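User: I've been trying to design a sequence by hand for this structure and keep getting stuck. Would you show me what you'd pick, starting by listing the structure so we're on the same page?

Assistant: Good idea, let's start from the same input. This is the structure you sent:
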């Protein structure tokens, strides 16, 4: 880049105390903050717009580390990439992967308990509250209560509903509706993705071929 690089020394970095930026060269700066803390920043211009990417605090990133990070960023720039954008994309991807890993440990039973705990205060009818718990514990938990909520599919839901559909139709309808609500809650909370296998206006309705009243 035609700039003098490696202007700073380890001693200079240690002694720097005045608020501001200290240039090491080629876009790398040591920043001294108002509270005395120090951090590294890589400044660059891309498509005519100034950009700044933090490289970490001095307590964790040494001068040598910061130079290596800045060199990597310059290499990406030379290939036409935005190092800050790539890092943000990488962080978002890692966050999503971590979320999916966490979701694997979230079973249907845990989601059901969390949903009930979050909503039962608004259910004034004590019998209604107990029915929610009883139907989940009696009919659903033995079949797929310990299954990761992401893995609950149509076959599992049908294993709960189909055996009681003709004998206890009203109960089956309520259970189906409650499963649907819990799975929707789990999707909104990020514990599962995709279609809701318990939704009536879908495969379940065609398989069971009946009407669906209010499940509450």
């Amino acid at each position: 880049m035609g700039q003098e690089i490696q202007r700073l020394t380890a001693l200079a970095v240690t002694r720097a105390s005045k608020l501001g930026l200290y240039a090491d060269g080629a876009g790398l700066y040591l920043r001294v903050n108002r509270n005395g803390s120090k951090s590294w920043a890589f400044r660059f211009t891309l498509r005519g717009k100034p950009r700044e990417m933090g490289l970490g605090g001095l307590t964790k990133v040494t001068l040598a580390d910061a130079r290596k990070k800045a060199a990597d960023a310059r290499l990406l720039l030379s290939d036409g990439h935005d190092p800050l954008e790539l890092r943000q994309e990488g962080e978002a991807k890692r966050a999503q992967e971590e979320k999916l890993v966490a979701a694997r440990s979230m079973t249907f039973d845990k989601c059901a308990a969390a949903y009930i705990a979050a909503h039962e205060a608004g259910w004034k009818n004590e019998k209604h509250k107990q029915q929610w718990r009883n139907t989940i514990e009696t009919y659903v938990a033995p079949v797929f209560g310990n299954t990761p909520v992401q893995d609950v599919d149509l076959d599992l839901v049908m294993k709960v509903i189909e055996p009681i559909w003709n004998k206890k139709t009203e109960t089956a309808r309520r259970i189906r509706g409650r499963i649907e609500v819990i799975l929707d809650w789990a999707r909104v909370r990020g514990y599962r993705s995709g279609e809701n296998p318990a939704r009536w206006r879908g495969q379940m309705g065609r398989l069971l071929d009946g009407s669906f009243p209010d499940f509450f």
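That's my pick for every position. To get oriented when you compare it with your attempt: The longest helix spans residues 83-104. The radius of gyration is 28 Å.
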